[in-house]
Amino acid sequence: MSAPLPDLLTAPGAVKAAPARKKAHGKASTLRIWLPLGFLVLLAAACFIWPQIYPVPKPVGGSILEAGLPPLSPGHILGTDPNGNDVLSRILYGGQVSFEVGFSVTVIGLVIGGLLGMAAGYWRGPADAVISRMLDVLIAFPALVLALAIAEGLGPSELHVIWALAIFSIPATGRIARSNTLAIREQDFMLAARLSGTRGHQAIIRHVIPNILPQLMTFALLGFGIVIILEGALSFLGLGIPLPEPSWGSMIAQGQQVLSATPEQALIPSAFLFATVVSLNVLGDALRERWGVR
Amino acid sequence: MAVATETSAGTTLAHKVLGSPTLRLAGRRLLAAIPVLWGVTLLTYLVMNLLPGDTAQVLLGANATPAQVHQLEIRLHLNEPFWVRYGGWLAATLHGNLGTSLASGENVTTILGQRLPVTAELLIYALVGSVVLAVLLAVLAARRPNGIADRFSVVISMTGLSVAPYVLAVVLVYLFAVRLQWFPAIGYTSLTASPLQNIRSLTLPAIAIGFPLFAVYTRLLRADIVEQMQREDYIVTARAKGVPHWHILIRHALPNSMFGLITLVALNLGVLIGAVAIIEPIFSLPGVGAILVSSINNHDVPIVEGVVLVFAVVVVVAALAADLLYAVLDPRIRL
């Protein structure tokens, strides 16, 4: 079974490891945690709380008489789209979708993928063989094709997008959980736990989970960003959040149609999408350095 | 790391050929690939067939009468049970016949033959560009960790990691097609019609696909080179005998740092089908990505299966090629 260079081929998580920095600059590294975290918290608060406490125009059902207003128009800070809907409002409600989908998919991946990966890595044997083969097929299978097919088959809706993207997130998280469990399993304290009669599921809860959590959390932050990008991709192709409900991906797709006349229609949601994902990635990177995760 | 190589008994020619480590590795890999490829095709068939949505209805449109729908179902064998249909497709595929498109009736092999060159050209352009630029930037960055080039590489790779290909495509079209008008916004010119126009029509899509790859590759390679330069004894030896810094970096550290990059490039090939599926329609390129999206919408199973199968085979072959390349880079690795 053992292939040449198994360490390189079986552990994609290890391949994508963070660059080894000799000295972590105290101030700069703190800034690299708090700056993106602050932005994300502010943005999430703006998306979820602002529309509740401050009147924002509705994201749908705008009047055609107000279509295509430029940014900084009275009553519409970011202008309106070709259907007369307020762009700021669509950004905020679209952001809700991005955060909800990203969060749900990441949690589903962590729970299901994490449990499968830990079970495979801890018990080895036939369970490992079956689970690993399943994850292999899912990984060999182009995630976006699967997501497209599922989203198309089930029909566009936020819940279907979440399930479609979970199929991408489960095997990836599972692989990370498995390879890290394998590494933990061979350490002396695990041997001691086994010798003192700790049973499998107890050992996983008490010893494996706390030890692989930093790896899983930093991977989850990167995965969060990827999921937001993929949700946008599905919506961009018209298979994600059904129109006229707002989503950053579909806003970019609509804006692309009028790119030469009103570029801001596409560029504004693009900027929000990029800023959100960049914050998640910088945060994940900084935490990985802080926790010494490779 | 060396896997059981003690086949000393073999002295005859047949034994030598069978004992060739390269051939054994290739054989083992291809055998291991069969269940994965089979699983991928089965999964595709399952997903495409078991999900709701009536294929014949989709193909005929909403105005078709039930009788017409029923007739088409019989003609396309859609009324047969799932396992019969999948078995028929699998048997035909094993004989090299990928079937015909449900929508147009065209041969899937012909469609792939027309469209694969476009996608292959686009991907080669994107991959070669991103790998070459990544090696250049990673070497520059690793020359002085935390220097200007290094900081630049960190910012660039973080940008590339975070930008969605479709966002990049929109920004590129706006800047270079709408504002500057250096490149066409959409359309494809074949290589035989005009090589210059061909390159121009593929440049923006290749950047949209290649830039995120370039970012990942740069990040990985830079980290690997820095690690080699800091940890390895042969670097110290080379320094001690007075080998110039650049020479150490390029002749010694770089080849020994390529393993991670090669693995990643091979692993990434399968993921690229997604990028191609999004980018090709944006630029109206007649490749397999564009037809993949429309075929999924049409429930055109044979085409989807054909495209997915081609990419799965590419992934398997790329993983094998990566293993063989390891041995070229490092003779100590026995296959």
The average pLDDT of chain A is: 79
Architecture of chain A, CATH level 2?
Orthogonal Bundle
For the record, the count of structural domains of chain A works out to: 1
The tally of beta strands of chain B, per DSSP, is 0
Principal-axes shape call of chain B: globular
Percent range of helical residues of chain A = over 70%
Order of H and E elements of chain B: HHHHHHHHHHHHHH
Low-confidence spans of chain A = 1-24
What's the overall geometry of chain A?
elongated
Structural class of chain A: mainly alpha
Question: In percent, how much strand structure appears in the residues of chain A?
Answer: under 5%
Look up the CATH topology of chain A.
MetI-like fold
How many distinct helices of chain B?
A: 14
- Total number of helices of chain A: 12
Largest sheet of chain A: none
Output the radius of gyration of chain A.
22 Å
What Rg of chain B is obtained from the alpha carbons, in whole angstroms? 24 Å
